[in-house]
Amino acid sequence: MASDTELVLFTAHREALAKYTYFLLTAAGAGIALSVNQTRGAALAWSQIPLAIAVVCWGASFFCGVLHLEYVNASNYDNLELLRVQAGGHPMAGTHPQKIEIGLNVLIEELEKKGSKAAAFGRSQFFLIIAGAVSYVVWHVLEMYLRTGTIALV
After folding, report:
1. In Å, what is the CA distance from 83 to each residue of 1, 21, 90, 107, 151?
2. Residue 91 DSSP SS3
3. What is the DSSP letter of 44?
4. Tens-binned pLDDT, residue by residue, of the chain (154 aa)
5. DSSP per residue over 119-137, as a string?
6. How far apart are CA 86 and CA 108, in angstroms?
7. How many degrees, rounded to 5, is the angle at CA 120 between CA 115 and CA 123?
8. Nearest-5° angle of CA 47, CA 33, CA 69?
């Protein structure tokens, strides 16, 4: 069983990760809302392709963030089940040693799969929000150029 210090550190890490994920979800939603607001009443034009790419990236980032949270929550449930099996209190395994061993192996395998997927979706959430921001800046600079017809380097 984990010590009190380990439990406090795990809880702090988990809370920080959740806050980070929700921050990125909020940023993706805000980016989409900003794009919609800035193009209200504008006619469709080829110059808006970078903005469309930004919105798609932010939408995909949001989707990946939600899936990340789903896999983290599923992993938390599997962790709880793992503790119940280890303690001999799970209704399917009880205190039977072979059933406990099988249950532990199955749950550990599931935790590894879900952990890998959660990590992959978390990384994708981050990279997609950055790709959306870069595409948004490209769109903004392109729109500035199209309005003025020049690029001032000074």
Report:
1. 9, 26, 9, 10, 63
2. coil
3. P
4. 678 888 888 889 889 999 999 999 999 999 999 999 999 988 899 999 999 999 999 999 999 999 999 999 999 999 999 989 988 888 888 888 888 899 999 999 999 999 999 999 999 999 999 999 999 999 999 999 998 877 666 5
5. HHHHHHHHHHHHHHHHHHH
6. 12
7. 125
8. 115
